[in-house]
From TrEMBL:
This is Multicopper oxidase CueO. Residues 54-167, 372-486 form the Plastocyanin-like domain. It comes from the Bacteria. InterPro entries: Cu-oxidase-like_N, Cu-oxidase_C, Cu-oxidase_fam, Cu_oxidase_Cu_BS, Cupredoxin, TAT_signal. One of its GO terms (molecular function) is oxidoreductase activity. Keywords: Metal-binding, Oxidoreductase. It catalyses: 4 Cu(+) + O2 + 4 H(+) = 4 Cu(2+) + 2 H2O.
Length: 487
């Protein structure tokens, strides 16, 4: 529940306020980009071990923060699995709280999904065998502990999961992990005097936890040494709530090649790309001019609509964020060796989109946000179709193999909507053709105006249901989540 709703409301001035700003001195640059260890299931006999644990992490010199991680103190290794394989993951819980590990974007049956229905108690182990049957994609894994997802992810329980296949390997895309194929897990976090703190209060309930520092793979403003060639960036927004609007400091164009569900059919040349919590994108960037350049984001802004008014809330990230904020800086080596690719494949992946003529059901979901609920404890503030998440209630029943259209809209603000166990296509946005940026196989999409999603349900969820929810993790934990069976 909200931390004392009445008291928080009394401080309602915070809504527009600057009170979220905290100043502290940060070094200009933390060092080189940390590259999480790569665990390729094929190098380990299809067995991977993950241990959720508590630890201490030094984000800023001389300042230690209490954190959580997998096989380490913050975040986890990058897991690489191959299409066609069956991979057994042994997840042990060394925390003092319940946890789960959800494979966000992985298409596996409900009982393997890592939702709160597969809770791992402290000292216990969960050992799912995951059948990998989907095209190459950049996925991620994170805690989905019941009511504790936001806090556990914030503390560090997240990592990347790559699916690869022969089709992808045949394209000649940059794929030397940590060299020209970089994992970029972006998260904002709140630091006070160089130590990680957990924001709480009314703004957190409304807007989700946001922070004054952007971390990449757990480091503040790191530098990545890259070859002077085309480099592939696997961008993952692992923030609790924030949406980034990413571009390069010199305005250079880049090629968008993949979304949550995998590669696009053709690359798309862009100069900026928005990425909401839970979303992923793969891009190719040309560094052959040898010039240092930064990946930057527009300032964090969210707009809340209340009583017919729009209130823009600007979250200040640091003392100098009049303009863009730096996410990380690339320092290319001049193209001396022939290492790395320089040409862009024209066609990427082909994919069968379900035929809208085969649709057997339509459903309507509204992500409800009632600000009155902050005052009146009888009214639930964050729900879907006015129902707060209940683990014992199945909200929707879907037939295995069915193609459906889900029309989803949001209230009061834009919400990143995520569905487990499927990848979908955007059919329309606000009754019109979808945006250029809506294309591709998706699992998380921003909804505000109604969006129609075309979905085929190929994974069974009979032993345990799948979830759908807002990926602002605080909204999810507070009840903006539902579940469905697939039988
Ligand atoms: Cu990434 Cu149900 O979440
Ligand atoms: Cu998910
Ligand atoms: Cu939301």
């Amino acid at each position: 529940t909200f931390l004392n709703r009445r008291t928080l409301l009394a401080g309602g001035g915070l809504l527009l306020g600057a009170a979220c700003t905290r100043r502290f001195a940060t070094p200009d640059q933390a060092g080189t980009l940390p590259i999480p260890r790569l665990l390729d299931a094929r190098d380990h006999g299809q067995r991977i071990g993950l241990r959720a644990q508590e630890g201490e992490t030094t984000f800023f010199p001389g300042r230690r923060s209490a954190t959580m991680g997998y096989n380490g103190s913050y975040l986890g290794p990058t897991l690489r699995v191959h299409r066609g394989d069956d991979v057994t993951v042994t997840v042990s819980n060394n925390l003092s709280a319940d946890t789960t590990v959800h494979w966000h974007g992985l298409l596996v049956p409900g009982e393997l999904d890592g939702s709160p229905h597969q809770t791992i108690s402290p000292g216990e182990t969960w050992r799912p065998t995951l059948p990998i049957r989907q095209p190459a994609a950049t996925l991620f894994y994170h805690s989905h502990a019941h009511g504790q997802t936001a806090e556990q992810v914030y503390a560090g329980l997240a990592g990347l999961l790559f699916v690869t296949d022969e089709e992808e390997q045949g394209l000649g895309l940059p794929s030397d992990y940590g060299v020209d194929d970089l994992p970029i897990l972006i998260q904002d976090r709140q630091f006070v005097d160089g130590r990680l703190v957990l924001p709480a209060g009314m703004m957190v309930a409304l807007d989700g936890r946001r922070g004054n520092v952007i971390l990449v793979n757990g480091a503040y403003n790191p530098r990545a040494d890259v070859p002077g060639s085309l480099v592939r960036l696997r961008l993952v927004n692992g923030s609790n709530a924030r949406t980034y609007d990413l571009s390069f400091s010199d305005g250079r164009a880049f090629y968008w090649i993949g979304t949550e569900g995998g590669l696009l059919e053709k690359s798309v040349e862009l100069q900026s790309l928005p990425l909401a919590s839970g979303q992923r994108a793969e891009i190719l960037v040309d560094f052959s001019d040898g010039r240092p350049v930064s990946l930057v984001s527009a300032p964090d802004q969210s707009t809340l609509r209340m009583h017919g008014m729009s209130m823009m809330h600007r979250h200040e990230a640091s003392e100098n964020n009049a303009g863009n904020e730096t996410v990380l800086t690339f320092s290319p080596r001049l193209a001396s060796s022939k290492r790395g690719s320089t040409t862009l494949p024209l066609l990427l992946a082909s994919r069968a989109v379900p035929d809208p003529a085969t649709v057997v059901a339509r459903r309507r979901l509204v992500l409800n946000m009632r600000l009155g609920g902050m005052m009146d404890s009888d009214e639930e503030p964050l729900t879907i179709n006015h129902r707060r998440f209940d683990m014992d209630r199945i909200d929707e029943e879907v037939e295995l193999g069915a193609v459906e259209i889900w029309k989803v809209s949001g209230q009061k603000m834009a919400h990143p909507f995520h569905i487990h166990g499927v990848h979908f296509d955007v059919l329309s946005r606000d009754g019109e053709e979808p945006d250029l940026l809506d294309q591709g196989p998706r699992d998380t999409i921003v909804v505000d105006e109604p969006v129609e999603l075309l979905i085929r349900f190929d994974q069974p969820a009979s032993k345990a249901p799948f979830l759908f929810h807002c990926h602002i993790l605080e909204h999810e934990d507070e009840g903006m989540m539902g579940q469905f069976s697939v039988t």
